[in-house]
């Protein structure tokens, strides 16, 4: 029904690599995987039609059975979304993970109505890339007007942001493909 792998760390594994709890639940103990900890997992349906109607294949992560015994939702697959690269939510409360010891991944088939909203990580990354490109455009524009004050500081005209933004808007209005150039 599904397969998974850890990018740059393992070959694809099928459900037989996991411990099957019942017909719709599987657990993978990450302890055998060498350090450093795994941060991403790629999960995919072997055939989108293998998932029953109105069902999702959900992936959960348990960083530590002692420090954090609950399984955290990472994402889900549907016939319309047959694969995903999901981030494993290690704790960020000062406890830096040093190994995969005790961590577990849970995979289950569950009713689509109880699955939390599925976020498309690609959309977030797309927005981040676009923001970086817009910032780079601003930086390049500002540096073309730079002067130095002798103390190692860069000096730009006070209205530089307004001028850049007006130019940015005008160019976007004239060329419908201009903004598409910021999306890599």
The gist of it:
The protein has helices spanning 121-143, 160-174; strands at residues 2-5, 19-22, 25-29, 40-45, 55-62, 72-77, 83-87, 104-111, 147-148, 154-155. The chain has 184 residues and is of the alpha+beta class.
List the SSEs and their pairings.
Layout: E1 2-5, E2 19-22, E3 25-29, E4 40-45, E5 55-62, E6 72-77, E7 83-87, E8 104-111, H1 121-143, E9 147-148, E10 154-155, H2 160-174
Antiparallel strand pairs: 1-4, 2-3, 3-8, 4-7, 5-6, 5-8, 9-10
Distance between the termini: 33 Å
Strand content: 25-35%
Low-confidence stretches: none
Following the backbone from N to C, one meets helices and strands in this order, namely EEEEEEEEHEEH
The residue fraction in helices comes out at 10-25%
What structural class do the secondary elements suggest?
A: alpha+beta
Taken together, the total number of domains comes to 2
Spatial strand sequence of the major β-sheet = 2-3-8-5-6
What do the pLDDT scores average to?
A: 79
Number of helices: 2
Biggest β-sheet description: 5 strands, antiparallel
Q: What is the overall shape?
A: elongated
Q: Over all CA atoms, what is the radius of gyration?
A: 23 Å
Tell how many strands the DSSP assignment holds.
10
């Amino acid at each position: 029904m599904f397969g998974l792998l850890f990018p740059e760390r393992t070959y694809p594994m099928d459900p037989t690599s996991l411990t099957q709890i019942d017909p719709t639940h599987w657990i993978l103990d990450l302890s055998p995987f060498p350090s450093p900890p795994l941060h991403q997992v790629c999960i995919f349906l072997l055939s989108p039609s293998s998932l029953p109607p109105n069902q999702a294949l959900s992936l959960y992560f348990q960083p530590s059975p002692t420090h954090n015994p609950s399984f955290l939702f990472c994402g889900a697959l549907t016939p319309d979304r047959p694969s995903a690269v999901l981030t494993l939510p290690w704790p960020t409360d000062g406890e830096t993970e040093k190994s995969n010891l005790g961590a577990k991944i849970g995979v289950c088939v569950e009713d689509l109505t109880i699955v939390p909203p599925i976020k498309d990580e690609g959309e977030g990354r797309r927005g981040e890339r676009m923001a970086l490109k817009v910032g780079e455009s601003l930086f390049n524009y500002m540096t073309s007007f730079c002067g130095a004050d002798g103390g190692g500081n860069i000096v730009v005209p006070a209205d530089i942001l307004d001028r850049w933004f007006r130019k940015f808007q005008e160019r976007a209005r004239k060329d419908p493909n201009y903004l598409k150039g910021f999306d890599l």
